[in-house]
Amino acid sequence: METIQSIEDRFNQKFHYDYTFLNDEPFTDEFIYLISTYIPQGKINFGIIPPEHWSYPDHINTTACSEIRANFADVPYGDSESYRHMCRFFSGFFYKQPMVRQYEYYWRIEPGIKLHCDVNQDVFRFMKENDKKYGFAISLFEYSETIPSLWSFVIDYISKQKSSRPELLPMLQNGFGWYNLCHFWSNFEIARVDVFDNYEYEQFFQYLDSKEGFYYERWGDAPIHTIGICLFLKKQDIHWFDNLGYYHPPYLQCPQDPESYINNKCTCDPDDDINSNENLSCKTRLSKWYQTMSQKQKCKIIRELSTIILSRRAKMCNVLEYRDSKVIYRRYASLFFVIGVDNDDNELIGLEVIHRFVEQMDKIYGNVCELDIIFGFDKAYHVLDELLIDGHIQESSKKEVLKRVTQQDELENMDEFEKILA
Ligand SMILES: Nc1nc2c(ncn2[C@@H]2O[C@H](COP(=O)(O)OP(=O)(O)O)[C@@H](O)[C@H]2O)c(=O)[nH]1
Ligand SMILES: [Mg+2]
Question: Residue ranges of the AP complex mu/sigma subunit domain (predicted)?
């Protein structure tokens, strides 16, 4: 009820969209009555998931499964049977429910979540008008113990396809061509139903389902959705909802930009934002420090500078005094690049360093955007390390830097990819 109230208060009382509740068993009359009184407008659907969408497929040996579950007890939900049915359902069946299929877009809402900010924008209209297909709020790393064999099947699947190599595949790979475990946390999704409800994804799901990892391991729907999206969508189809104040225990995504924080009456603590914790979130902030200082000091500087710089207007000077040094920043579309230098350093060289860095990343990623840096951060660091050493320009030739980074990449990636496909 608290979740429904939060969604209504923060979003839906302005837009009156429908709700669909699905369960593997009938909802009680009391539940239906309460929900109906809490949601004053919009249609409410209550549906039952057919047993074949929430149970073992024929080829699974259920006795073996219960033995296997005992070995997974140390992994979150590792010993749970219903969690496995749930993950398989969200991976391959939610979009087949007639009550879901009747809509073009959906927002997945889970019990226990909360919105800490007003959502004044009609998110579905936003998706449609901007031709976005999949929206996420938080990205995380998966527990590797839950998917030991998944990536080898994905590689196997790709190698059997006639189509060209998926554009977003590198987003999923580490330097060795293996899955980097990064995934969109699928308890939040605002997406088109046909992102999953289509022949290509269905074939992919059927293939994975035949490999039995939903039950003999503990494959989650988050990595399955993420991999599906990276195989079949393009970068511009994906949108990051970064200002909803979305909370699903234990992680929170809280706006860092003071303007949207205040305008949307957020109640979360920006310091608790998951993206500020570089070890957890995939959105590793691209940061390089040339002076020794504690993690706490670094976080403080990043927070202070983000607040100062984001609140500056476009025509203001790109150099400012900060503590006992100077800060130089430059904006490229939605990306800000910021460097700190000593007071007696030349600001113009600072601006030039930023520009060179961006030009080189543009070449490497092809018009660099935020998602490139979030998922392909290793390349960005390679460029930076070629460009600067100990905070000083090491190589001023763009051509040289690009040549070395490309060579390094080719060596790392192609070698390993060929080996896996072989
Ligand atoms: N009907 C039904 N829904 C379930 C069951 N287990 C989990 N869910 C739902 O599946 C979603 C994810 O489960 P949850 O327990 O939140 O997993 P977590 O988010 O990974 O911690 C939530 O919407 C749950 O209500 C189950 O046994 N039956
Ligand atoms: Mg949940």
Answer: 280-411
